[in-house]
Amino acid sequence: MRDYPLYLAPMEDVTDPAFRLLCKQFGADRVYTEFVNADALVRSVNSTLRKLTIADAERPVAIQIYGRDADSMAEAARIVEEVGPDYIDINFGCPVKKVAGKGAGAGLLQYPDKMLAITRAVVNAVRVPVTVKTRLGWNEEQKIIVDLAESLQDCGIQGLTIHGRTRSQMYSGEADWSLIGAVKNNPRMHIPITGNGDVTTPARAKECFDRYGVDAIMIGRGTFGHPWIFREIRLYLDCGEAWSPPSMRWQIDILKEHVERSIEWIGDERKGIVHSRRHFAASPVFKGLYDFRQTRIAMLRCENKEELFRLMDEVSERYGEE
Questions:
Q1: Is the Cα torsion angle 147, 150, 154, 156 positive or negative in sign?
Q2: What is the DSSP string of 248-268?
Q3: I need a surface site. Which of 36, 88, 91, 298 has the fewest CB within 10 A?
Q4: Is the pLDDT of residue 2 over 70?
Q5: Catalytic residue at 23?
Q6: Which of 69, 68, 66, 86 is nearest to 126 (CA)?
Q7: Catalytic: which of 23, 94, 208, 302?
Q8: Distance CA 31, CA 9 (A)
């Protein structure tokens, strides 16, 4: 493993093969699939089985599973192992109500004994390395991660990713990296510790490596409409140099490439465009452009690739510099 590894975080409706391969193209050292529901996987639900699609070009790749029952999680892990991922990751961090509210994801932070039972069951069910992604705790009063990390390590996991928020925070406020650092600097910990939360600039990435000593950094929302963030951070970490995309046209061409890949993956032009919309909304390409509101609305309403690309080209011609 090279110095300063950078990982693409698992995100529902985001980290499909189209986006994973794009981030890999720009230097992501490891990528993660969308969340895979263990119960649906055991029932062979087609839309869930489709999430197991991985390509050699994106390796090393982790498939992430979630659930609230040790037996179904172990069975799901065995199914996943047949696909041949490099890692199986257990999701103990998703805070959304439809996951955590049903006792899975970050919901298990309220029941650490059950979390550990699930972890042991998955580790014992497969030969592929098992990792875990979780949060600091359920809420401000229950930040259990330092002790929990040791217990998870004792279950046999090969790596731990910590998002620096509690479940109650969801994605609000600032990520607290101090407890991530406390886990990493615990002399009893020997597995790799990955930090996650609010890494959106090369300088912040370097600060997290240097200040907290983590083994890797995972980037989530900072990749939206910005898959080249891995290249920016990599150059800064390796050479101390700032890197900027060559031009607005270059950036827009990458966004167009993502749309093309999404359409190809989904197999439907309209659905592929809709699936890509969050990237247009969040992309730094369009931040701060003067008198852009109506064009932005038109782009987000587009359901036709030809019209969308025409609007994007107009943005490039109006605001860009070659």
A1: positive
A2: HHHHHHHHHHHHHHHHHHHT-
A3: 298
A4: no
A5: no
A6: 86
A7: 94
A8: 7
